Amino acid sequence: MSSERIIVPLDVASEAEAIALLERLPEVTFWKVGLELFVSSGPGILKILKNQQKRIFLDLKFHDIPNTMAGACWAVGRYGVDLLTIHAAAGKEAIAAAQQAVQEGAASAGVVPPKVLAITLLTSISARQLAFDLKIPLELPEYALQMALLAQEAGVDGAVCSPQEVAQLRQTCGDDLLLVCPGVRPSWAEEGDQKRSLTPAQALKAGADYLVIGRPITAAKEPKLAWMRICDELAAS
Ligand SMILES: O=c1ccn([C@@H]2O[C@H](COP(=O)(O)O)[C@@H](O)[C@H]2O)c(=O)[nH]1
């Protein structure tokens, strides 16, 4: 079912607001906990989600030296979440350390390790910003692909990329690499700070395994109606 391939972010500032959102959208099976909620309220929300049998994407976007990545990833390994993000730009050694540490952390807690996803390039970065602000002398699709290949060589389970690059990553990296796309926007939703969007149907057709769709649902007047509209559009596509 395509609705199970939609991950909704709990981008709110408190556990109480997160619980209120969970109550408004009981049909959502896969939730993302990101920096805003985790930093403001801590890991308690993970237990709440687990008690409701929800799947969890812990989007903490680690980007640090190998030793620090390993320590943080070991600790995340113990939570029993499904997905964890790190930045591919942290480098091969740090990615490999992260991958090994989640396995060890999970084993120490007797839980299944999360799949580690490497962020190739944040979906809020445009080609112009990549060139002029970040001074990266590669075309954006080539840079995203190189980051995915680096992460794949270092042993990650998957990558985060924009829907605009997902077809190329799928073709080059193969079917075993899990591809998760944020920056997805239905035709009726505002782009906001996302720079490289496609619609949900286009993103799935291009090869995404999972879509992260936040504000078009969570900031809608009626989140449930927005969720249903997206699910209906996917079913009709
Ligand atoms: O490259 C990335 C990596 C992560 N995100 C996260 O996804 C959601 C998107 O929310 P929207 O409201 O649908 O824009 C958000 O939690 C980001 O932190 C991303 O957008 N891009």
UniProtKB/TrEMBL annotation:
Coiled-coil stretches noted in the UniProt entry, renumbered to this chain: none
Active site, renumbered: K61 (proton donor)
Pathway in which the depicted protein is active: Pyrimidine metabolism; UMP biosynthesis via de novo pathway; UMP from orotate: step 2/2
Keywords of the record: Decarboxylase, Lyase, Pyrimidine biosynthesis
Pfam families: OMPdecase
Annotated binding of substrate, by residue: 11, 32, 59-68, 123, 185, 194, 214-215
Catalytic reactions on record: orotidine 5'-phosphate + H(+) = UMP + CO2
Cross-referenced SUPFAM superfamilies: Ribulose-phoshate binding barrel
SMART domains for this protein: OMPdecase
A GO term for molecular function: orotidine-5'-phosphate decarboxylase activity
Enzyme Commission numbers on file: 4.1.1.23
Start and end residues of each Orotidine 5'-phosphate decarboxylase domain: 5-230
Entries under PANTHER family matching the protein: OROTIDINE 5'-PHOSPHATE DECARBOXYLASE (PTHR32119:SF2)
Family in the record: Belongs to the OMP decarboxylase family. Type 1 subfamily.
Function noted in UniProt: Catalyzes the decarboxylation of orotidine 5'-monophosphate (OMP) to uridine 5'-monophosphate (UMP).
HAMAP family per the UniProt record, alphabetical: OMPdecase_type1_B
Subunit-structure text: Homodimer.
Protein name: Orotidine 5'-phosphate decarboxylase
Species the sequence originates in: Gloeocapsopsis crepidinum LEGE 06123
